[in-house]
């Protein structure tokens, strides 16, 4: 069933089970329109910064399990996935059989039911996707854990999600060079972190590869049972249709932890409805219609690759996903693009910079690569131009914007967007999504061109933070999610990100947005990455500190020369007082800068007095 939304009427979500609208809409039975470049401009409520993504398409009110069945009926013989580092290729029909067998094994053997939380703690392997799809079939909630977690962090994820089962690398796993999984899981389940008891709800540990763990490897009080994934996938039992039919579109599908760029991760809970529409609408807006070999170098535990990447073939059956590596490796990355004729790439700004630098240094050619979808952080305008110059076949470099809490898509640039708008903005609201920019103090709409906080409402918004109602209430009110990002909107609905509200720096009473300074510094050809944070100052409250990573084998400016360069382009209070030359930045596993750590490190390096709370 799909719900037709008229162009200007908004879609509101007030709770986990009800989608309320201004008035009833016609129920129709066709998929999203795939007319090439048939786009409606967003409605913009001039002179204020409010826009709504109009569309000739439809919102899909189905579960992901239903979409899997539809795909199987139409084209089970098409290639579905290639794992370059595992030397593996799967067609959808074989994959569909595997996920059904695993889903029934999870139900009958592991006692996993609709609404139970299942954890996965692993790197990017083929079976990660098998496990995700099997959970979605059953209505189990997949809780994704960072494969680099250590025992304290893993304990937090297990407890926060209240995992009933955990899929992870087994003993003697080929993933052991990424992390010491066997040691960490034993430490995690043998300790009582934060004076809490042991997680008695965890009943099953399943080895994705390697050897099965002996059950006496864990504390006997937990009574944990252990299994091997390959044996569970051999459970030859037909899929029980009643299990799929019991799952509802508004049911929780995934718990995805936020990146931790500003502190301890929170578990964003996303529904089947959110995921189904996000992948369909985002990828349609980015023109992924027809055949496309899409490379996924980003970690699956995050929503960018774990939703838009892994679920994409459900919305666009002619597409195929390519997994390049287990652990970040530029050589394998380039090899996978060349060998599998990759035409579409998911990337973060850091990954894009690494790729074009590596290709230029090695003099490699990537003639099949046509388009890039970049997100996860602000993309410097210079990066876009450098990437396209280094890889001339890539004529389309799109920048999207969103958050874990928005499933993850929120805005995007369309195929007919000008190069200037693609480089300077994050695009317009996606179909059926509302975006408004409000004053941080009054919460009232600001006028076009004025800076404010970005809020959004629509099919993309999470149910809430898992088991954290107070934190949910702080960011989610009347269906509006507060991104805590600062931005501006123009009269066409194009949005430009200025920075994080938590990254706003106040210098002598003047508001300073780091991205403006970073863009100026990126004008210098010697600078690969520039990032600005605020540090305490007794006189002015805060001062600016710029972290600079220079390119290799090029002349480098002195810190004084950088300061003089900024003086010629910025107001005096926006000129950094401090510069730090670095080789790298503290990053999350999704390659986002952790500015709160950079700020602490800056204070230590500069021997400044920390700001009093």
Automatic annotation (TrEMBL):
<comment type="similarity">
    <text>Belongs to the ATP-dependent AMP-binding enzyme family.</text>
</comment>
<feature type="domain" description="CRAL-TRIO">
    <location>
        <begin position="174"/>
        <end position="381"/>
    </location>
</feature>
<keyword id="KW-0436">Ligase</keyword>
<comment type="function">
    <text>Acyl-CoA synthases catalyze the initial reaction in fatty acid metabolism, by forming a thioester with CoA. Has some preference toward medium-chain substrates. Plays a role in adipocyte differentiation.</text>
</comment>
<dbReference type="Pfam" id="PF13193">
    <property type="entry name" value="AMP-binding_C"/>
</dbReference>
<dbReference type="GO" id="GO:0006631">
    <property type="term" value="P:fatty acid metabolic process"/>
</dbReference>
<dbReference type="InterPro" id="IPR042099">
    <property type="entry name" value="ANL_N_sf"/>
</dbReference>
<dbReference type="InterPro" id="IPR000873">
    <property type="entry name" value="AMP-dep_synth/lig_dom"/>
</dbReference>
<dbReference type="InterPro" id="IPR001251">
    <property type="entry name" value="CRAL-TRIO_dom"/>
</dbReference>
<dbReference type="Pfam" id="PF00501">
    <property type="entry name" value="AMP-binding"/>
</dbReference>
<dbReference type="InterPro" id="IPR020845">
    <property type="entry name" value="AMP-binding_CS"/>
</dbReference>
<dbReference type="InterPro" id="IPR025110">
    <property type="entry name" value="AMP-bd_C"/>
</dbReference>
<dbReference type="InterPro" id="IPR045851">
    <property type="entry name" value="AMP-bd_C_sf"/>
</dbReference>
<protein>
    <recommendedName>
        <fullName>Medium-chain acyl-CoA ligase ACSF2, mitochondrial</fullName>
        <ecNumber>6.2.1.2</ecNumber>
    </recommendedName>
</protein>
<dbReference type="GO" id="GO:0031956">
    <property type="term" value="F:medium-chain fatty acid-CoA ligase activity"/>
</dbReference>
């Amino acid at each position: 069933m799909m719900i037709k939304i008229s162009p200007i009427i908004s879609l509101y979500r007030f709770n986990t089970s009800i989608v309320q609208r201004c008035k009833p809409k016609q129920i129709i039975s066709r998929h999203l329109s795939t007319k090439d470049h048939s786009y409606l401009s967003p409605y913009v409520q001039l002179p204020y910064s409010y826009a709504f993504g109009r569309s000739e398409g439809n919102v899909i009110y189905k579960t992901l399990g239903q979409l899997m069945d539809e795909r199987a009926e139409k084209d089970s013989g098409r290639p579905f996935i290639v794992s370059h580092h595992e030397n593996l290729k799967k067609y959808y029909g074989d994959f569909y059989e595997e996920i059904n067998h695993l889903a029934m094994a999870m139900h009958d053997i592991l006692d996993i039911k609709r609404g139970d939380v299942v954890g996965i703690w692993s790197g990017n392997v083929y079976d990660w996707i098998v496990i995700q799809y099997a959970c979605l079939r059953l209505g189990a909630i997949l809780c994704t854990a960072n494969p680099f977690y250590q025992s304290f962090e893993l304990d937090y994820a297990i407890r926060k999600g209240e995992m009933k089962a955990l899929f992870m690398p087994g003993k003697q796993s080929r993933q052991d060079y990424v992390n010491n999984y066997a040691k960490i899981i034993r430490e995690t389940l043998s300790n009582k972190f934060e004076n809490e008891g042991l997680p008695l709800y965890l009943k099953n540990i399943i080895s994705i590869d390697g050897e099965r763990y002996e059950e006496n490897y864990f504390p006997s009080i937990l009574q944990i049972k252990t299994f091997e994934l390959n044996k569970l996938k051999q459970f030859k039992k037909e899929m029980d249709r009643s299990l799929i039919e019991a799952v509802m579109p508004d049911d929780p599908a995934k718990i995805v932890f936020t990146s931790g760029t500003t502190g301890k991760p929170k578990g964003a809970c996303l529904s089947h409805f959110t995921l189904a529409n996000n992948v369909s609408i985002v990828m349609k807006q980015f023109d992924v219609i027809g055949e496309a070999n899409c490379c996924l170098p980003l970690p699956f535990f995050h929503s960018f690759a774990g939703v838009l990447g892994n679920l994409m073939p459900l919305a666009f059956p002619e597409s195929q996903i390519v997994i390049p590596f287990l652990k970040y490796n530029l050589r394998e990355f380039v090899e996978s693009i060349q060998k599998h004729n990759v035409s579409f790439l998911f990337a973060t700004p850091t990954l894009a910079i690494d790729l074009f630098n590596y290709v230029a240094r090695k003099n490699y050619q990537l003639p099949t690569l046509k388009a890039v979808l970049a997100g996860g952080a602000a993309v410097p305008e210079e990066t876009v131009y450098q990437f396209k110059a280094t890889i001339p076949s890539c004529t389309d470099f799109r920048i999207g914007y969103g958050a874990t809490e928005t499933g993850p898509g929120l805005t995007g640039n369309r195929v007919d967007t000008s190069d200037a708008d693609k480089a300077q903005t994050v695009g317009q609201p996606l179909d059926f999504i509302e975006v408004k920019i409000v004053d941080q103090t009054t919460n009232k709409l600001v006028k076009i061109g004025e800076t404010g906080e970005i809020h959004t409402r629509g099919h993309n918004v999470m149910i809430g933070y898992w088991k954290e109602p107070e934190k949910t209430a702080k960011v989610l009110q009347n269906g509006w999610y507060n991104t805590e990002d600062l931005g501006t909107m123009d009269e066409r609905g194009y949005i430009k990100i200025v920075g994080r509200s938590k990254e706003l720096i106040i210098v002598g009473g003047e508001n300073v947005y780091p991205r403006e300074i970073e863009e100026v510094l990126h004008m210098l050809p010697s600078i690969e990455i520039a990032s600005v944070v605020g540090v305490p100052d007794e006189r002015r409250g805060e001062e600016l500190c710029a972290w600079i990573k220079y390119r290799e084998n090029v002349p480098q400016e002195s810190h004084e020369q950088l300061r003089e360069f900024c003086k010629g382009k910025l107001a005096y209070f926006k000129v950094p007082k401090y510069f730090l030359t670095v080789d790298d930045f503290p990053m999350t596993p999704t390659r986002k800068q952790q500015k709160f750590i950079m700020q602490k490190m800056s204070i230590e390096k500069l021997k400044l007095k920390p700001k009093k709370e």
